[in-house]
Amino acid sequence: MIGKYSKLLHPYSAGLLIFMDNILWGVNALSLGLSTPIISVLAFFITGTSTLLIQKYLAKDSMGECFTKAVITGVLAGVPTSIAGTALGTAILIIAKSARSSDKK
C-alpha cells in the first residue's frame, strides 16, 4: 500500500527531526560540547527509530522506504549542529502544508 506521504516525510517525522535536532544539540551546548559523541549517536538512533515507526504506521510506506527515510533523518539529526535537521524539517513541513492546502481547492 502506498501512503499519502510516500514521496516525502510524514509531517510528524519532519517535526520530530526539528524537535530532536534542537533539544539534543541544545543539551550539548550546555555541556560545552563534551557530550558530542554521545549526543550524535543518541540523535541518530532516537530520530531514526521514531521516523521508521512513523513512516511505517502513519504514512504506510514500504519497509525499504521507511528504512531509507529513517537513516537519512538519523544522519541529519546526528550532525553536530542543529542547522541540517532543522532546515530540512522546516522545508518538509512547508511542502506538506502547501500540498495539503492545494488538495483542499
Short summary:
The chain is mostly helical and 105 residues long. The protein has helices spanning 11-30, 36-57, 63-78, 83-104.
Strands, total number: 0
Largest sheet: none
Structural class: mainly alpha
> What integer value in Å does the Rg equal?
14 Å
Q: How many domains is the backbone divided into?
A: 1
Q: Strand percentage, roughly?
A: under 5%
By DSSP (H or I, 4+ residues per run), the number of helices equals 4
Shape: globular
Segments where pLDDT lies below 50 for 5+ residues?
none
- Mean residue pLDDT: 85
Order of H and E elements: HHHH
Please tell me about this protein's structure.
The model has no long low-confidence stretch (mean pLDDT 85). The protein is mostly helical and 105 residues long. Helix 1 (11-30) packs antiparallel against helix 2 (36-57), helix 1 packs parallel to helix 3 (63-78) and helix 1 (11-30) runs antiparallel to helix 4. The protein has helices at residues 11-30, 36-57, 63-78, 83-104. The protein is 76% helix and 0% strand. The chain is globular, with a radius of gyration of 14 Å. The chain has one domain (11-96). It has four helices and no strands.
